[in-house]
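In response to reviewer comment 3 from the previous cycle, which asked for concrete evidence that the modeling workflow produces usable outputs, we include below a single protein chain processed end to end. The sequence was submitted unchanged, and the resulting structure tokens are shown without manual editing.
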Amino acid sequence: MRLDRTLALARKELIELRRDPLLLRIVILLPLAMLIIFGYAVNFTLSHIPMALLDLSQDRTSRELTKAFTSDDAFDILPVESRKALRAALDRDRARVGVVIPEGALAALRKGETLSLEVYVDGSSPVTAFQVQARLQRAIESFNARILTARALTGEIQKPPVVPKVEVLYNPDLDTAIFMVPGIVGLILTQIAVLLTAIAIVREKESGMLEALIATPVRPMEVVAGKTLPYLILGSIDAALVLWLGRVVFGVPMQGSWWLLSAFVFFFVLGSLGVGIVVSTTTRTQIQAVFGAMVYYLPAIFFSGLFFPIEGMPKILQALTYLVPLRYFLEAARGIMLKGAGLLDLWPSLLILVVFGLGTLTLAANRMSKRLV
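The workflow returned the following structure tokens.
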């Protein structure tokens, strides 16, 4: 082994890398993006958790309890007028926890009685549910400490003034598998649709097969449809397989409509396939296609709520999550499977995915047309 030959080959590789500006930019920018994602987005300490609050007491005690809930930015209060409205807020992901303050809260505490709060926690995300219960318990303990301090001066019996009666909804055992299976469906669909489509088209570009299409009367939309159809079928089969195994092996429930879930799968896969084609039209090699797919793939995973709760992210990153299609698919899949959500609850998410699917396919066809002329 000679050092001069080794260094010459290394110099050649550096020159080739320098002549590939797209890959060089991705290699430099991707670590910076990952640093920002892990530094700011990955946060298990939640704040501003949406709480649906039904205050049946409307007295000084209930107001002090509300202040305790909002201290340290723990919860954001969403007032509701009935138990039905409280449950609807939980079903539609407008709240992560629901609290009912019973009537006569002030009178109960004056008598030295223990006030029992009805607490309903959204258990569809175990990580969020644990955090919600911990923050809620901390707020109640802070409230109780103030009351007990005042009672100690009078020599009263030290009974806990407020006790939460917690009921975990949708996933009572806080089983992680029940939470993860709908997310894994979205993860697999994203991976197959974006990565494999981009690589397959770039591979044909490298082999010259794509240029051969120029001599044929095929139209750009026909090319896009022909490229996406096999992966649409493959993605649908994989989604059905994962959902079936989730039910059989992990006991994941299916409270809602299979047809509605299939509609979400269809339009989400369409949009992801369009993204894969767009990535392929901006890259020249398969390595570039892999890194280009990762630029879309990794932020989609971290900003969708798949692994890390969105409530724990800074406000600016929470705003960015609304641009991630996987977020809407995950909310819909978990809502349908765990909460029995219907079209009336999920039509905004379905509309967004329809626009995503048709929009990316149209963009892919336009970019593909420039390759075929």
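The chain has a mean pLDDT of 82. We consider this sufficient to address the reviewer's concern, and the full set will be provided in the supplementary archive.
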